[in-house]
TrEMBL record:
<dbReference type="GO" id="GO:0006261">
    <property type="term" value="P:DNA-templated DNA replication"/>
</dbReference>
<dbReference type="GO" id="GO:0009360">
    <property type="term" value="C:DNA polymerase III complex"/>
</dbReference>
<dbReference type="InterPro" id="IPR050238">
    <property type="entry name" value="DNA_Rep/Repair_Clamp_Loader"/>
</dbReference>
<dbReference type="Pfam" id="PF13177">
    <property type="entry name" value="DNA_pol3_delta2"/>
</dbReference>
<dbReference type="InterPro" id="IPR027417">
    <property type="entry name" value="P-loop_NTPase"/>
</dbReference>
<protein>
    <submittedName>
        <fullName>DNA polymerase III subunit delta</fullName>
    </submittedName>
</protein>
């Protein structure tokens, strides 16, 4: 993937070194492909010369820990290879389950890898349980911890890990990623995806998949002009859709957040205060939306109102 050249260089140098560190922190913004890198790096790590290797997803010596399905219905969707909702955290039982497997030797070679995607989602008890393995790693076991916010991890976890940093892409690289991952985009959507993604190819592709080009344009108008007659909020509801699903709602909230970030650079001091306030409330909304069952129509109106509140004049932004 684009932007992985430096992490690969560091990883392969470590593999070829005298003694490879047992725990790695893959740090960087969400959407940079850290989990994809982790699977590919783990496959290189556990491979034995002359021995056929299964795919990383089915390899007995590569263990991937992610949040479990939210309930039995979602578990059935996972079994049927359909999109499914996950729990919000990785539990201590999952960590203990993998620790029980680590008392045996690797299956196909001398090494095995444990990937946690992401370490930000570990329950407190799960972190404490993991620390025991990081402090006394089983022979031949290597940990790859994907993290989007390394500063939120316990210092005791960070101190036991070698850090691999993943950097955001520039606009030209993002455009290339879009051309490869979502060919045929119209130019307006392509430009909007690059603007919203802030260097994250995953975010750009997700924006493109959700077809939010028109949504982004209306959001920009709300921030610039306000919406004294509610016309733009009506238009926003129209282009988002009457009943957007949870994924589309979250993508729209992130698009609104980035519209505010982009507006900040050209704002005067008074407007910066309004933008900052609207941004804080959008961030709070993003945290609440996956938990509370908001009415989709009212949620879109709330997003539109927050954007309008950050317009150039209070009068134009009246709600």
């Amino acid at each position: 993937m684009l932007g992985h050249e430096q992490p690969w260089t560091a990883w392969r140098a470590a593999m070829n070194g005298h003694r490879m560190h047992h725990a790695w922190l893959l740090a960087g913004r969400e959407g940079l492909g850290k989990a994809t890198f982790a699977m590919a790096a783990a496959a290189e790590l556990v491979a034995e010369a002359g021995m056929p290797q299964p795919s990383p997803e089915s390899h007995p010596d590569i263990h991937l820990l992610i949040p479990l399905p939210a309930n039995d219905d979602e578990a059935k969707k996972m079994e049927d290879r359909r999109p499914y909702q996950k729990k919000r955290s990785i539990s201590v039982d999952q960590i203990r389950g993998i620790q029980r497997r680590l008392v045996t030797r690797p299956t196909l070679g001398a090494r095995r890898a444990v990937i946690i995607d992401s370490a930000d989602l570990l329950e407190k008890a799960a972190v404490n349980a993991l620390l025991k393995s990081l402090e006394e790693p089983p022979q031949g076991t290597f940990f790859l911890l994907v993290t989007h916010q390394p500063g939120r991890l316990l210092p005791t976890v960070r101190s036991r890990c070698q850090v691999l940093r993943f950097h955001t892409l520039d606009d030209d690289q993002l455009a290339r990623a879009l051309d490869m991952g979502a060919p045929g985009l119209d130019e307006a959507t392509r430009r909007a995806a690059v603007a919203v993604a802030a260097g994250s190819p995953g975010a750009a592709l997700h924006f493109a998949e959700q077809d939010l080009g028109q949504v982004f344009a209306v959001m920009q108008q709300l921030v610039e002009r306000g919406d004294p007659d509610f016309a733009l909020r009506g238009r926003l509801t129209e282009v988002i859709g009457a009943r957007p699903d949870r994924e589309r709602q979250m993508a729209a909230i992130e698009a609104a957040r980035m519209v505010l970030v982009l507006a900040l650079g050209a704002a005067d001091d008074a407007r910066r205060v309004r933008i900052a306030d609207a941004h804080a409330r959008i961030v709070n909304l993003a945290a609440q939306a996956p938990i509370y069952n908001y009415d989709p129509g009212l949620l879109v109106l709330e997003i539109g109102g927050l954007l309008a509140s950050a317009a150039r004049t209070r009068e134009a932004a009246s709600r």
